[in-house]
Write a structure and sequence with these properties.
It is a single chain. This protein folds into two domains: about 160 residues, Rossmann fold; about 120 residues, Orthogonal Bundle (N-(1-d-carboxylethyl)-l-norvaline Dehydrogenase, domain 2), CATH 1.10.1040.10. The protein contains 13 helices and nine strands. The strands form two sheets. Strands 3-2-1-4-5-6 form a six-stranded parallel beta sheet. A three-stranded mixed beta sheet has the order 7-8-9. Helix 8 packs across helix 10. The longest helix is centred in the middle third of the chain and has 31 residues. It is elongated, with a radius of gyration of 20 Å. It starts with a strand and ends in an 8-residue tail after the last helix.
Length: about 300
């Protein structure tokens, strides 16, 4: 019998993820806040509400922008929780706060269904190529039920414990990503200001001690000014930094680097770069050093 999956959120990440599920043989029901018929994968059925999408589904996946969006889609008379039966699993694949993960897990326990947090590392191209890294939190038995769905979307699964712990792991990972971009922006600016060819310097970095997908890919974006179109736009990065800082305050961990990066992102948005990719905040570092903005 074909498994039915509800997929809620057909954005830059959700659209290719939903398409991969249909290609893997799942029966798919989709819903998006703003109707975009061109984003509905071939063979999928477009529901009129989250509740309608989730009714009778074995799994309901949320891939949405922030806490407010996930809560709105989950709760209420037309939310997915009202449609999901007691054997269903809500797979939360959005990057949200640990507090929301705790609330969702409790709401599903009270309803009789299950909640598994499964935020992802990867950009839209990774989503298209089924190459996401998935961080999970929830009951091991529920995770095993979800495994065929997750394996259709990603290249690896890392279980972190509870849903809140999975959410925190994703935030910490995104903070480290932002910190690496900040360091790259500063290092490349210093090298260029000192007369070193940025491309040659970057080649040295990735060939020696600093080779990694982040340094390689984001370094090239910074050097070339490849910030449009955005795979991960600055406002989403800002949201994640704010969530990481809030987690730091809750746990008593100062995050001065996160404070600096937040200021750089806010400065970038104030300068009209709202649509820039995440690495675009490094342009304010260049400008502070008296170098012009790099534009592709």
């Amino acid at each position: 019998m074909t498994t039915t999956v509800a997929f809620l959120g057909l954005g830059a990440m959700g659209t290719p993820m939903a398409a991969n599920l249909t290609q893997a043989g799942f029966r798919l029901r989709v819903w998006n806040r703003t109707p975009h018929p061109q984003r509905v994968p071939r063979g999928a059925w477009s529901a009129s509400s989250p509740r309608e999408a989730a009714e009778g589904a074995a799994f309901a996946i949320t891939m949405l922008a922030n806490d407010d969006a996930v809560e709105a889609v989950t709760n209420g008379p037309e939310g997915l929780l009202a449609g999901l039966d007691t054997h269903g699993v809500h797979l939360g694949m959005s990057t949200v706060s640990p507090g929301l993960s705790r609330r969702l897990a409790e709401a599903h326990r009270e309803w009789g269904s299950a909640y598994v947090a499964a935020p992802v590392f990867g950009r839209p191209d990774a989503a298209k190529n089924k190459a996401l890294w998935i961080v999970t939190g929830g009951e091991p038995s529920d995770l095993e039920r979800c495994r065929p769905v997750l394996e259709a979307l990603g290249q690896g699964i890392f279980h972190m414990g509870s849903p809140a712990e999975a959410g925190l792991a994703k935030l910490v990972g995104n903070f480290l990503l932002a910190a690496t971009i900040e360091a790259l922006g500063e290092a490349l600016t210093l090298a260029e200001k000192g007369g070193i060819d940025p491309a040659r310097f970057h080649e040295m970095l990735v060939t020696t001690l600093f080779g990694s997908p982040v340094v390689n890919n984001y370094g090239l974006k910074i050097i070339r000014g490849e910030f449009l179109p955005a795979g991960f736009a600055l406002p989403l990065g800002l949201k994640d930094l704010l969530l990481a800082r809030a987690a730091g305050r809750e746990l008593g961990v100062p995050l001065p680097l996160a404070d600096l990066i937040t200021r750089h992102i806010n400065d970038s948005i104030a300068r009209g770069r709202t649509d820039y990719d995440f690495a675009g905040f490094t342009q304010v570092i260049r400008e502070a050093a008296g170098l012009p903005e790099v534009k592709r």
